[in-house]
Specification:
single chain; alpha/beta; Rossmann fold; five-stranded parallel β-sheet; two-stranded antiparallel ribbon; 8 helices
Length: 195
C-alpha cells in the first residue's frame, strides 16, 4: 500500500514539476525561465531533487555593446551578439532597455549603413531569445550616470551574473549588489569563446 501511495505521489509530483506554474514558483520570476533547475523525483521517497550541474550565465548587455557590434563585425561586441541564442549564455531584457536599444540603434542606423528594418529585426530576435524581466524596485540614484541605473535594476531583478559593458567605470558600484561588471572581451573569455 505504501509503495502504491509513493508511486502515485511520485507521478503527481512529476506531472506538477513539468508545468510552467511550478517553474514560475521555483524561479520566483514572472516568466518561464531556461535557468529553472531540472527536477527529478526519487521513486522511493517522492523527494524532488535539483539535478542541475551547471547553469548558463545570465547577463544584461549594455546598449554600448550593441552599438559597437553594429559598427564593427570584428570586435568582441559582435562576437557576443553572434553568440546570443546559441546556449552559451542567456540575456535579460526589460521594456525600458528594449526601448533604449531601439532608440539608439535606429538613430545610428544611417551611420552604420543598416536599415531601420534590420535594426527592428535584430531587436525582435533579441526579445525572442531573451528572458523578459519586469522591474518592480528602483535603486535610483545608485550609479554616477542615472541612465545606467535602469540596467543595474534589471540585472538585480533578473538575478543576473553580470552586466556586459564597455563603460565599466560607471558600473563599479554594481559589485556591491553582487553583479559583476565585464567588458565584452572578458565575458567572451569567461564563457570560453575565442573570436
Amino acid at each position: 500500500m505504501k509503495s502504491e501511495m509513493t508511486g502515485s505521489l511520485t507521478g503527481q509530483l512529476n506531472k506538477y514539476v513539468n508545468t510552467t506554474e511550478w517553474n514560475g514558483r521555483i524561479s520566483s520570476r514572472c516568466y518561464p525561465c531556461p535557468r529553472t533547475p531540472e527536477m527529478i523525483v526519487a521513486s522511493n521517497s517522492g523527494i524532488a531533487y535539483n539535478t542541475t550541474m551547471s547553469v548558463r550565465p545570465l547577463v544584461v548587455l549594455d546598449t554600448d555593446v550593441l552599438e559597437a557590434a553594429m559598427r564593427s563585425l570584428r570586435g568582441a561586441s559582435f562576437a557576443i551578439l553572434s553568440q546570443v541564442g546559441t546556449g552559451a549564455f542567456d540575456i535579460a531584457v526589460s521594456v525600458t532597455l528594449v526601448l533604449e536599444y531601439e532608440a539608439v540603434l535606429t538613430r545610428q542606423a544611417d551611420e552604420t549603413g543598416r536599415s531601420v528594418a534590420a535594426v527592428g529585426d535584430l531587436i525582435d530576435y533579441l526579445c525572442s531569445v531573451a528572458r523578459r524581466q519586469q522591474v518592480f524596485f528602483l535603486w535610483r540614484p545608485f550609479l554616477p550616470d542615472p541612465d545606467d541605473d535602469m540596467i543595474l535594476e534589471l540585472a538585480v531583478a533578473a538575478g543576473c551574473d553580470a552586466i556586459v559593458t564597455h563603460n565599466r567605470r560607471d558600473f563599479q558600484k554594481s559589485e556591491e549588489l553582487g553583479i559583476s561588471i565585464l567588458s565584452p572581451a572578458s565575458f567572451l573569455r569567461k564563457i570560453g569563446v575565442n573570436r
